[in-house]
Amino acid sequence: MRILHLTDTHLFSDKSGDVQAKMHHERFINFINHFNKNRKLLNVDSVIVTGDISHDGSAISYDVFFENMDSLSIPYAVLPGNHDDLGNLDTAIKIAKHTVAVEQLSNASWALFGLNSVVPREDYGFINKDTLYKLREDLTDTTCENIAIFLHHHLVPVGTPLVDICKLMNSDDLLTICHDSPVKFIGTGHAHTLFQRKIDNILVSVSPALCSQWENGTSAVSIVNNSGFSIIALDKSIFIETHFI
After folding, report:
1. What are the φ and ψ backbone dihedral angles of 9, each rounded to 5 degrees?
2. Which of 4, 23, 26, 202 has its CA 20 to 30 A from that of 245?
3. What distance in Å separates the CA atoms of residue 117 and residue 119, rounded to the nearest whole number?
């Protein structure tokens, strides 16, 4: 199974507005064109998007995102991020042509789960107790020997104080549940950087943002102007390809 992990497009309602809005839109369209041009080379089965699709939460920004993603004619799952408007996002997901739930991308070898880590009007993440309880039940019930989980907020510090103050606040609770199950991979976004760490038997991976990255180690707003995504090959072993375009 090969999954393209896309995150943090941060689209605006006015794609030709200020410099940031224009740049984010251009980088998203560049990704769409890059995917179409290199479809055979990328060789992915599906796409998982881990949040911050929109920067301003506008319905127009979601129209742009889903219209272009649907044009790829490939199954894709979308999870919310802290910048997303949950109502507008949910409406857009329901009318999109090729959206599926993360769980629907599972196969006989790998069970996939998507989690909502968004706290309304907050930048930090938190998974509520009902979601954690359901995840524990789902992990107990699955007979699959390999499990991958996706969510927006990163679990462990990536070394950039600007985003590490707003990571997933109850990551220990999630990891405790995962350690008691065959979870092998957790993929997130939010940190706008490339980061990977093995925690016991779990590979924790942060995909780079499509819009831009934060400068490593920064405590103030300092942007590195490059655009990236990851491809996660889930097999007997896990292999991650990082693409900067």
Report:
1. -80, -30
2. 202
3. 7
Nearest-angstrom CA–CA distance, 141 and 68: 36
Q: Is 173 exposed, middle or buried (0-12, 13-18, 19+ CB in 10 A)?
A: middle
Nearest to 2 by CA among 56, 52, 39, 43: 43
* Cβ(44)–Cβ(4) below 8 Å: yes
Query: What Rg, from alpha-carbon coordinates, does the chain have?
Result: 17
- Provide the total of helices (H) and of strands (E) in the chain, helices listed first: 7, 12
For the residues 170-190, what does the mean pLDDT come to?
Answer: 97
**What pLDDT does 16 receive?**
77
pLDDT (mean) for 24-34: 98
Q: What is the pTM of this model?
A: 0.98
Can you tell me the distance from the alpha carbon of 112 to that of 147, in angstroms, rounded to the nearest whole number? Answer: 6
Query: What is the layout of strands, in order, in the sheet containing 202-206?
Result: 111-114, 147-150, 183-188, 202-206, 195-199
CB 69 within 8 A of CB 47: yes
**Domains and their CATH numbers in the chain:** 2-244 (3.60.21.10)
- How far is it, in rounded angstroms, from Cα 99 to Cα 59? 17
Q: How many CB atoms lie within 10 A of CB 77?
A: 22
Instruction: Tell me the pLDDT tens digit for each residue of 54-86.
Output: 999 999 999 999 999 999 999 999 999 999 999
**How much is the average pLDDT of 197-217?**
97
**Selection from 117, 223, 98 nearest residue 174 by Cα:** 117
Can you tell me the distance from the alpha carbon of 80 to that of 150, in angstroms, rounded to the nearest whole number? 11
